[in-house]
Amino acid sequence: MAKLRISIVEYLNTAPLVWSFTRGPLRGRYELFFTVPSQCAEALRAGAVDIAILPAIEYQRIPDLVVLPDLAIASKRSARSLLMLGKKPMKQAARIALDRSSRSTQMLARILCAEHWNISPEFFEAAPDPATMLRDADAALLIGDTALRLAMAIEKTATRSADGAWVSSGASAELADVDVLYVYDVVEAWRNLSGWPAVLAVWAARRETVTSQVVEDFLASRDMGLAQVKEIAGEAAKQLRLPAEELLRYLSENIDYSLDEENRRGLEAYFERAARLRLIPRVKAIEWAKGRDVSAATALRSGR
After folding, report:
1. Which residues of 44-77 are buried (b: 16+ CB within 10 A; e: fewer)?
2. Which domains does the chain show, CATH number per domain?
3. pTM of this prediction?
């Protein structure tokens, strides 16, 4: 029987989800492909893979998918790796560059502009290079490890503004042309707007490919990864040249890997706001993969 093909986001925050597939007892059971979030979506849409870490909004756009229960890349209050950078406060931004590797966070940015910052800017996609993005725009959406590196650099010296921005002067060498940088955590802004966490990605699959064993494998891989999160942070620190303790804090405090009740409510609120703004045609109800049920999975994860 052919191995199921999995498309995986090549960011640090994904590592705990796939630990068993890359380093543990499930290594070799699945065929793995590493890429950026937008390409994970395209691979699943085209049938090039069977399962993908899917930008959450793409569940509404790709037909015939199921979501694996109690698995996500989410953030309860702040992510530090999903940032809106501005040369001026967001309420003054007229032109915004969007990281082209993003899908879900792009949608969050559009929702926040419309309903949180009350602006109607021009949007355009760009490569994730903050200096280039900000040369052509008032603000830039940046995600992933590049954003996390920038967040860590500015947190030490930045001050908070009244609108929730981290304000920094001379934040980094690569942004030397920006006199004052306003940095907004996208998840923090979403929480302030909606009252809910942000779910950025889910494991999604073609309905016919998922068995109860597949669901158990993915839950087991996540659980094993969370048990090894200190080791994951230590290895990533060498690759990214960032402090291991900061990466451990990021993986442990900023990112949540469940689809507990609060996260599911946040995901539903996200879909509802996207539909209300006509960013998607309508809200499609979530169809769960057969296997361990959602409530049981959440209870087991939390030890209840």
Report:
1. bbeeebbbbbbbbbbbbebeebbbbbbbbbbbbe
2. 5-75+197-302 (3.40.190.10), 82-194 (3.40.190.10)
3. 0.92
